[in-house]
Amino acid sequence: MVGPLLDLDARVYGAWCGLGIHATPQVIAAGFAHPIDGHAAGETATIVKLVRISLLGPTVFLLGAWFAHRQRQHAAHVGAPVRYSKLVPGFVLLFLALALLRTLGVLPEVTLHMSERWLFGAGDHHVNRAELLSQTGKWVITAAIAGVGLGTEFRAMKAGGMRPLLLGVLVAITIAALGLVVASL
User: Fold this and answer.
1) SS3 state at 163
2) Nearest residue to 33 (alpha-carbon basis) of 52, 15, 10
């Protein structure tokens, strides 16, 4: 809603969306919603967000290595050497492995030849394994988010008072403002 009020150029608006919005689907939706040139804004928003995502893994690894190195320097005694393989979360390695398998074409479409005794009837049924994994991932993420939401206790939030809510609003405004400054450069 703020983008059209600021009368931002499509590419600046797209970069702002990619920098300031957390979730990828919302970045893409907001980018393509630009009132004048949604195509250019949406493409820019998507590219900026994907670059942010691509840099997340190396950033986490480098920060972990830096922190481990500093901890070791300030330790009273020198312990075991840093195991850099422990600095990379397992899900990142799994993601990279699946991306590599998909890129190499190791997850092709499979055709199942089913008899009439099968639940969905006889015939050929095509299964795109990459799409099946993608859909499974979406359902798992949806279930995890629902679990977090269902576990939210509003009484505890109310007991926390207004300070955490105000901090969240302040952080969101700061991120939006900094993102706009960077996008305008």
Assistant:
1) helix
2) 10
**Number of domains within the chain:** 1
pTM of the model: 0.61
- Answer whether residue 60 is part of any domain: yes
- Model confidence pLDDT, tens digit, residues 92-139: 788 888 888 888 888 778 888 888 887 777 888 888 887 888 788 788
Cα 32 to Cα 150: distance, rounded to the nearest angstrom: 31
Q: Is residue 126 part of a domain?
A: no
Task: Answer whether residue 109 is part of any domain.
Answer: no
- Please classify residue 14 by burial: count the beta carbons closer than 10 Å to its beta carbon, then call 0-12 exposed, 13-18 middle and 19+ buried: buried
What is the residue range of 17's domain? 1-88
Q: What does the alpha-carbon distance between residue 61 and residue 68 come to, in Å, rounded to a whole number?
A: 10
